[in-house]
Automatic annotation (TrEMBL), chains A, B:
Chain positions recorded as L-histidine binding sites: D75, L76, T77, R102, Q118, D122, R271, Y275, Y276
PROSITE patterns hit by this protein: AA_TRNA_LIGASE_II
Organism: Buteo japonicus
Pfam families documented for this protein: HGTP_anticodon, tRNA-synt_His
GO biological process: histidyl-tRNA aminoacylation; mitochondrial translation
Catalytic activity: tRNA(His) + L-histidine + ATP = L-histidyl-tRNA(His) + AMP + diphosphate + H(+)
EC numbers for this chain: 6.1.1.21
Family: Belongs to the class-II aminoacyl-tRNA synthetase family.
MF-aspect GO terms: ATP binding; histidine-tRNA ligase activity; identical protein binding; RNA binding
Stored Gene3D superfamilies: Anticodon-binding domain, Bira Bifunctional Protein, Domain 2
Record lineage: Eukaryota, Metazoa, Chordata, Craniata, Vertebrata
UniProt GO cellular component terms: cytosol; mitochondrion
Protein name: histidine--tRNA ligase
Amino acid sequence: CYEVPGTRDYSPKQMAIRERVFNAIITCFKRHGAEVIDTPVFELKETLTGKYGEDSKLIYDLKDQGGELLSLRYDLTVPFARYLAMNKITNIKRYHIAKVYRRDNPAMTRGRYREFYQCDFDIAGQFDPMIPDAECLKIVHEILSDLQLGDFLIKVNDRRILDGMFAVCGVPDSKFRTICSSVDKLDKMPWEEVRSEMVGEKGLSPEAADHIGEYVQLHGGLDLIEQLLQDPKLSQNKLAKEGLGDMKLLFEYLTLFGITGKISFDLSLARGLDYYTGVIFEAVLLQPENDHVEEPVSVGSVAGGGRYDGLVGMFDPKGRKVPCVGVSIGIERIFSILEQRVEASEEKIRTTETQVLVASAQKKLLEERLKLISELWNAGIKAEVLYKKNPKLLNQLQYCEDTGIPLVAIVGEQELKDGVVKLRVVATREEVNVRRESLVEEIRMRTSRP
Amino acid sequence: CYEVPGTRDYSPKQMAIRERVFNAIITCFKRHGAEVIDTPVFELKETLTGKYGEDSKLIYDLKDQGGELLSLRYDLTVPFARYLAMNKITNIKRYHIAKVYRRDNPAMTRGRYREFYQCDFDIAGQFDPMIPDAECLKIVHEILSDLQLGDFLIKVNDRRILDGMFAVCGVPDSKFRTICSSVDKLDKMPWEEVRSEMVGEKGLSPEAADHIGEYVQLHGGLDLIEQLLQDPKLSQNKLAKEGLGDMKLLFEYLTLFGITGKISFDLSLARGLDYYTGVIFEAVLLQPENDHVEEPVSVGSVAGGGRYDGLVGMFDPKGRKVPCVGVSIGIERIFSILEQRVEASEEKIRTTETQVLVASAQKKLLEERLKLISELWNAGIKAEVLYKKNPKLLNQLQYCEDTGIPLVAIVGEQELKDGVVKLRVVATREEVNVRRESLVEEIRMRTSRP
């Protein structure tokens, strides 16, 4: 077998579904005024070093064949930060849709791959607090609503609140990152397991772990923020206080956007990547839309992101910072859900846009078919012809049925003499003779969308 | 520096130009009824082995980090053949636009990169001779005409004619491939150098080389085909005769398509890849369109392709063949030409589609701006807002000038009281008060394309 584990080909039908998802996402990104950029699939290995914490082991390296050491990009965020620093850009709102690579254990039934698309929207620049951050959440809300994937929830937290929480719980500074990684596993593991990892593997005191345990079960909205701002310990911690203040501001903006109904301030949300510095968030689908599907689709995170104010500075020779916040939509799970839905609905998806098949009723008319289709192509009509010298009319009509081509332009000896073409509507079997000079206009009229 | 040699980032402006090129190409591929597929960026190393002849040394391998040995794709043709065999597809017309990778010496000024796009259209299936082949040439003709790149020429030859020619010139069977590689260099080297490579490095007899030298200077149209069909030696060679017969048929179809004016049957065209079995072709730009450009753009091959009837069978366990013919458009040179043309013309290219900026004339109106923009986004209007609590009106208007946003929706205290929004046309400075409930309709009307 020639298949690479953890990857897949997209068939024409799958591509049609994928295009729908991309269109919804790109339409939203453009609605918010984003420009688009592209970067190479590989980066210098050193560009990716030290950006992903414990996940760095999943980076794909290229073989050393002479020249620079290269790695495949792990996400689109680090290449974006590298791009900003290299081009001294301090202010941009851009999207980028491209494949990223992770040497993960493929669990493809759960929609996880080693090669997968990310659709990223980021805002870079020195701005007033939480306005761009709120827009990122609005974007996630718009896209997940547009795609009609069923109910969803966007969890929000802040690295500063987490770090403040770790501090007041008695976690030593040196253990912040690794304890943060443990908290990040709470969406897949019960608290008891996470606690024993903290205490057993990572050497945290049981008291500190239990203290964390109390906080990470909290989730809510503005009321919880207010409550924590009064928390005797957290409110004494500078970082936590800053984070909570910004969280309050964020919720005020989200209220203006009318989307707080699907937002949850959740102290258990951690996100593993090293580069986040402020707000972090993650969107999860709450239940699969599988009324018509036999096998339930497993659900999970479909979008995530946050603020990373220090990353660009890591690539600048003078360390100049450019504050950034952004969101990444993961389309693989979304695509799996929509694909299963299409399968179940027996919806017929066309994989071409062909308007007309140029056919002949008699033999020896290949030349006439080629002349006619050339006229149609030159006029911008989407047209096909069977690659046979003498195809049977029935086979030509069957091809239209199979592929959804709505019209057939039939040339025969009589039609050629009369200067007409017989135009057949596949769905109704209606046939009309159309003068050859009017054919293009007639096809356009009959295939224009209402 | 963090740049990977031989690659480049695309800025928003470059992306806008790239999108134009892609649109022209995709529109053409769809006009010819093609479906679209996608495959992973890497393949098993063995999938690529033995497909590219002397160019195999340019393949990028991934590091062995456990698991399978992988290589980055070198073109889109081999992955396509692998896809057909794996899925037992015997009949498809598809396009595929994606990046491919070659460890070449980057000569970026000449538009050559180690990572570059190919835009491939291929027809697979058992069909009557030369009909799909002719369509591939029609497609190249349409795309190069649409893009208005100046004059171009499509050179055509056939591997069977080359092999027949080698045979009648006295080249031993075992040297066919390597002598073919030498002939392939004729577009970059004079005949004398190619001849000395054949005789000196590759051990061909001087007589055989001189004999080849006579053939490879020939180029023409139907007349040349007829002449060679009468050639006392070639006409006795089975392969050459087959190739010349098909070439004649091809030119008949190209005459029906009305495109022979830009097609040249050229015996010096070889193309290096191992997998071609029949017709081969290559399109070259004849002169750069650089009337307005100071630095002349170097020109060269912008499209190539041919027939490869044996490739799919190499991936099928039982060796079942699927005849294929296809064309690959290389956009990097095309893109360089168009980019220089845009630079020279001082054409202003918008990199966003934003219809309106939501602005305020006074301070303390951030909340009102966010409420209004949320209404616009929800109605599908492309809108932006400056991420400042109290931006100056002048700065907001300047932002529109800089980015080409045509309208400004201004909220002020008076407007809020009156239930209106002040809509300003950036180009004319005209201002009208629009009732809030009519704003969406008014923006749509004023920004719809004529």
